[in-house]
Amino acid sequence: MMDIFSPYLLSFIPLFVAVDAVANIPIFLSLVASCSKKQKRKIISDAVITATSVAVIFICIGKWVFSLLGVTIPDFQIAGGVLLFVLSVRLLFPGAQKDGLTSMHDRDIGVFPLGTPLITGPAVLTTALMMVNSFGVIATLVSLILNMVIVWITLAKAEAVMKFIGPSGTRAFSKIMYILLAAIAVMMVRHGIFGAFIK
């Protein structure tokens, strides 16, 4: 029984870490501070639909683009792992957080910057393609959709979550997620090197 659910669980966890829904709560609240409840609901819908669409499209055509360019999966694992590691390290340091985009406020904030790159950014795209290679398209798509449902719920209940864990709790949770993301990045580089040089 565990063998059936194992690919779903193993693909869900890295995507959950990469999406990091809780870290987006303060940004989301600052962007929608002056919006009505109806506007907030539309922004959340736009954000989740955009984030999911971008990720699904990348999952579907990513390998085709790579084959067209002559890029192998180990190549992408090494490059993607390095990119994820750099992103996670940058996010761990003060002043390099995602909130560089919080000054933006217009009617399309659900699409940009919330949908992409805050929810579905380079980390999510890289992780998703790696999960497809490791666990298959179906497991990755199911895990992605479950993560987007969590994002939807988290943003819808953002104010309650913020009150419960507070700003410090949000920051602490995010730091833990970034450390896990760095560890996943190291694993990806290791697998890439093994696949490329150790046959």
Overview of this structure, please?
With 199 residues, the protein is mostly helical. The chain has one domain (2-197). The protein is 81% helix and 0% strand. The protein is built from 8 helices and no strands. The protein has helices at residues 2-19, 25-31, 37-69, 73-92, 110-119, 122-135, 137-156, 158-197. The chain is globular and about 55 Å long. The chain starts with a helix and ends with a helix. The relative contact order is 0.22. The model is unreliable at 99-105 (pLDDT under 50).
Give a topology summary.
Elements lengths: L1 H18 L5 H7 L5 H33 L3 H20 L17 H10 L2 H14 L1 H20 L1 H40 L2
Key attributes of the depicted protein:
199 residues, 81% helix, mainly alpha, globular
Question: How large is the radius of gyration?
Answer: 17 Å
Q: Which band does the percent of strand residues land in?
A: under 5%
Structural class label? mainly alpha
Outline the low-pLDDT stretches.
Answer: 99-105
Please write the string of helix (H) and strand (E) elements: HHHHHHHH
Q: What's the count of strands?
A: 0
Instruction: Note the gap between the termini.
Output: 32 Å
Rough outline: globular
Quaternary status of these chains? single chain
Number of helices: 8
Give the proportion of residues in helices: over 70%
Characterize the biggest β-sheet. Answer: none
- Mean pLDDT value: 83
Count of domain modules: 1
